[in-house]
Amino acid sequence: MEYLELEKLHNLKIKAEGFDDYKRATLSSGIGIESNNRIKVEGNKLTIFIPDELKKTLNEGSQIYLGFPVLKRKRNGEETYLPLFIIKKDADKEIEKIEIDTESFSDFFVAKPVLVRALNFEPQEIDELTKKPLLSLLKDFLSLSGMRTSDADTFEGVYKEFKNWLGGKIKKSTYELASFDFVITTDKTRDFEYFEGQKVETILKDLVSDFPQPKENSAAHRYFFGEQTVGFDKYNEPSSVPWFGTFHKFELSRGQALLLQKKAEGENLIAVQGPPGTGKTTVLMAIIASTLVERAISIVKDEKDFSALILVASTANKAVENAAREFELTQTDGKKEIPKEFKEIPLYAEGYGFYFVGGKKKNIQKSLERVENLAERLKKDQFNGEEYENTKRELLKLYSSLDKTAETLKFLIEKIEEIRKLEQHLDEVETRLNEISKRPSAFSNLVNEDLKDLEENIEKTRRWLEDLNSIGFDFKNLPLLMNKDFIKSVIELEQYLQKRNIVDRIMDLFLKREKKEIEKFLIKNQKVLNVLGVNFELDAKKALQNLKKLKNLHLEAKRLLEEKPDDIYLNNLPVIEQIVDLRREKLELTEKLTIKKDQIEETLKEKGLNLQLNASELINGQFNGQLDFLKLWKLLTVETNRKLFVLASRFLYLEALRQKEDILKALDAFKLLMGNKDDVSKGREIVKDLGIEKFYRYLSLVYPVHFSSLHSAPYIFEKVKDLLKKEFYKPIHILYVDEAAMALPHLSYPSVYFSEKVISVGDPLQLEPVVAVPEDEIERFHKTFYNDNIEFINRYSPARTSTYHRTARCETGDYDDFGEACFLDAHRRCQEPIAKLFKVVAGYERLEIATPSLKGKDLERLNKVGGSHLVFVDVLKGKSTEKNTNLIEAKVVKCLVEELINTGYSNDKIIVITPFVKQEKLLQKELKGLLESKKIGTVHKFQGQEAPVVIMSTVVQKNDSTTFIDAKPNLLNVAISRAKHLFIMVGNSKRLKDTNYFGKALEFIRDNGRFIQVEGESKMKGIFLIDKDKVN
């Protein structure tokens, strides 16, 4: 609330009608002269005497406001007083006068918006003026304007010169100097209003003092206290949740579809980052369609109805009117026609229903006339019960069909994901097999050998090794058992020991021949026996046993050697076993893949999707774009979802006819609530009779979409807020904030508080909120109320953040802090080189450019001026009439416009943009008769607009600072992205090449466009006709 008070004091505006004479005062000439006994000047001391009439309004805690000098504004037949400097003083009934020493007094407020609008000051110029004493500040203003004071030592002298300068500076078409110098008023007399923000201020005060705090996890609670929990990329990953109903007959972009998914998932606070030309209107229409379908299905399927009121709000009435234009009847040959998108929508009711434009009184009055017409139509149309039931059945049938499609797609995605994993596994297996095949050539053969043969050879090798293991010998020792001499020795010794009779044995015993023969055998074969591990004893019986064993081992070794497998198997069995395992795994994976692919083929045929989806493309990854549920759903259901929306609209209109009597009551109440005090009282009675929930349910049935500026948005709820408080009811189903990155966070909060869901669409990389309070006042505010806590200031300060940032739960209000937000990823406005230029400047890495190329007359016109979509005109020599102007650039721009018009571009297809208000005025003067003034302006003037040709005058010269225009990409991003076919930047390349964002733009245009150098005023003509571009 304290910041609102600051804004009020910097936007003070007083209604001229009925403003009492005793609240005015004039500073007469001559020091020490009193004017109407209210103002007295002695040297630099200013004394304000409080009129008796004002004293009567004062009590303890009152405030007196003194404003000076005063401008008078005439607009729409109304006159308003606008003081430039405001002094606020606490007062009570005892106060007699206020004394100010102008040499030291600095506790006053500067009306920054008035200085910008009425006097063409740049906002940064005002911020650069440090908070000095009043007298010094007036001198600074005169110095800034190139004037010198004639009497620098007196307040009267400085003030008179300041006022004279003021009279020559103001825009005389809208403003004039008031006939008096000072206004004196109080907070009790209600002379001043805070622009349209008065309603917002009143509601905010009520919410703070009289309404319950928002429930935890509600949209309003998360708007204030929510914190980012996932990264931007993670937030933009789609799910498998379907949405039902869409407005247009064309496929949504991925980012647009992702938003509908978030909404279908039940998210109640959704931020959307929408770079230039990414279809924010399409997003709005899709949200409306899906919401109305949701309502219709809820009634039909669950027999539950709800208010589906969608409030579309923005910072300015103009933006609101631009958004509402999509809904209005079109003019063709003097006849009003229904927009083609609405011809199938019964709820549109020939332009009488569906949408209500609030905001300005004129808009409301026009919309109330449509309410009257809709009421007449409802009275005339009759409810048809049979049609109602048939429509219900059709609606349910179509919804069920889509629901089944969703389940089918989930199944397909699941199977395709399984296939992807199997294919990945298969790739890993083949990679390992390939690695093995790169070993010696024998392995390469094995990798490709018949799997059955491989398995048989492995089994044979395993048995052979088991047999070898059973004899207890190492394979390398087998040849020893096959040695002929050794075997011969074994046989001879065995024969000798076996063939002896009893006499021989006795003789051997005595003669020890038996022992000698065995010893002889051992000596001869000891080495072999040691290797084989056979221990011989000199005992004949035991020797025979060993000899028999050796013979058997010989036979077994002979068999093993005869049956020995290939050496590659014996030496590499583990590797070959691995090959077989991998080959088996590959075979199993291939079989599984075949089964799952067949399942996909069968499912597509069974569900009738085979004509829309090619199974092999899905399976083989040849599908156009990223394959997931989101991609398939938006591709396959666009026509059916449009049909569902049309059918839901038809059903909802029939539902309105079914409840006609209550609908008409709700419309009567709504009209009365828009009227005077007596009407409002009558309207409230009807609302009480209907019930607050039913009132909004009935109203939103025929007027689901409402448009309003954020300042005026409380018209939806302000007249019945006590009833809403009693029921703790949220009348707004969805608050859709357009240009949310330009909206101050507190401006949106009243509407956020009364909303179930909030969708904020904006772009921190485009224009930022306009802050009325000068920077030095903001710093004082931060110190007083935030104790200079940087974290809190960055997250919550009304002067540092925006509606977008709070919706996205950002940690700061910085231009590069995007928080949790859906990214609209498809640009379809600018030609590709222009889009690539602002993509480079702003850093939109995820942005895809889908703009069709020029053809026909558009292409012919472009070719006449060189054929390039990007042009830099280098003006090295500038000339200033005053700060932030460049006369030479203005003359160059004039030549460019003349050439463009001469080559076929009509003047309504060209806009001229500059960063500075003063250059805007200079350009308007130079281009008078060529372009309308509304086609020339600062970047802020053209936010939300576009043109085939945009010329940008950068103004900066050799020694100028570029901090204001180049500290962030926002300003340049918006300027470039207004151009659909041709963007021309005029500037000093030597100065701009060393800047950040303008330097990037200059480099990009050098590489991808035309670079033309203008050497002097005499060579300006025929800029586009220069045969050879001169590159600096």
TrEMBL record:
Coiled coil regions in record: 361-471, 540-606
Every DNA2/NAM7 helicase-like C-terminal domain range: 822-990
Taxonomy, superkingdom: Bacteria
A molecular function (GO) term: hydrolase activity
Taxonomic lineage: Bacteria, Pseudomonadati, Aquificota, Aquificia, Desulfurobacteriales
Protein's name in the database: DNA helicase
Record key words, sorted: ATP-binding, Coiled coil, Helicase, Hydrolase, Nucleotide-binding
A UniProt-annotated Pfam family: AAA_11
Family of this protein: Belongs to the DNA2/NAM7 helicase family.
Occurrences of domain DNA2/NAM7 helicase helicase (ranges): 255-460
